[in-house]
Design brief:
heterodimer; A: 114 residues; mainly beta; 4-stranded antiparallel sheet; 11 strands; 0% helix; globular; B: 112 residues; 6-stranded mixed sheet; 5-stranded antiparallel sheet
Amino acid sequence: KAGVTQTPRYLIKTRGQQVTLSCSPISGHRSVSWYQQTPGQGLQFLFEYFSETQRNKGNFPGRFSGRQFSNSRSEMNVSTLELGDSALYLCASSLALAERGEQFFGPGTRLTVL
Amino acid sequence: KQEVTQIPAALSVPEGENLVLNCSFTDSAIYNLQWFRQDPGKGLTSLLLIQSSQREQTSGRLNASLDKSSGRSTLYIAASQPGDSATYLCAVRSNTGNQFYFGTGTSLTVIP
């Protein structure tokens, strides 16, 4: 069974630009969560989607948004990039009952903002 | 807000030693707790998931325990190997806000 895939793996952008990251969950998984990992803040929860609906949102500005499609694939968008947005962005998927289920992570997208 | 702490931040042991990693959390209202390992520059690999109603889970040389009332979990690694070198993270799924909160991790080095 294929794992969680994320594209692209590496991205370099400049301040003010916007970026879209993509995540394909494990087949059959309906919940997708996004996290930001930085050396200073560690792993922080961004948001979670289930059946195309955002269920939960972390404490991030509105520049960070996401969506989920009917095939459970998810995209995350960051607008007006700032230097502090440089991070490893991780996506995780789980089965329907996300609050009871095991989360499986993808390899991440390394975003560098210059 | 749930806070998750992992002690120690770094640990270095000789190969073959048994070791314990600690994780503590401030709010016992959780759905579950999950242990992960992360290799440098990589994503997270799930090791063990403990539901709030469970006391422990085992997988191979790994054993994780959960004491929800005291807000503690331990990950026991038996007969450590150099391939176990990685950062180990615990995360709790809080049922207040239904979010996943991560600890800061323990960086483990197993010396051959």
